Amino acid sequence: MSDADEGWEDENPERLYVITGGRSGSSGKSASLDLVTLIVSKNAPKPGMQPEHATIMRLCHSPLSVAELSAYLRLPVSVLTVLLGDLLTDSRVVARAPVPPAQLPDRALIEAVIHGLQKL
Question: Could you give the number of structural domains in the chain?
Fold first, then answer.
């Protein structure tokens, strides 16, 4: 098997159909997921869970983005959002927006602080 053929099993449409149970749409909870949404598991996977669900829960003991999970699991984001929707519905994981970038303070405020420090 060549390197080009190595990932073929992950792109098999039948496998993806089985993983998602034939669902392709997003549920209400997974509709708000984007590539930078952070996913954190609430607890360890339970015996008997679907293997992909259990893997997501194991990987997400610390926050991972949807894009990172997609890469680690070698699954399309559309398939991953269906799986995450299942876990969100069952309250097994938490989805949270990433920390917004810090806002730079107003230039006038910085100058006032510097001026005040110079007076000390």
Answer: 1
Show the domain range for 56: 3-119
Residue labelled with tokens 């989805």: 95
* Rounded Cα distance, 37 and 97, in Å: 5
Q: How far apart are CA 109 and CA 107, in angstroms?
A: 5
Q: Sheet of 38-41: strands edge to edge? A: 64-65, 38-41, 93-96
What angle, rounded to 10 degrees, do the helices at 13-20 and 77-89 form? 10
pLDDT, tens only, 8-42? 344 677 777 677 777 776 555 555 788 999 999 99
The sign of the CA dihedral 64, 68, 73, 79 is positive
Radius of gyration of the chain from Cα atoms?
21
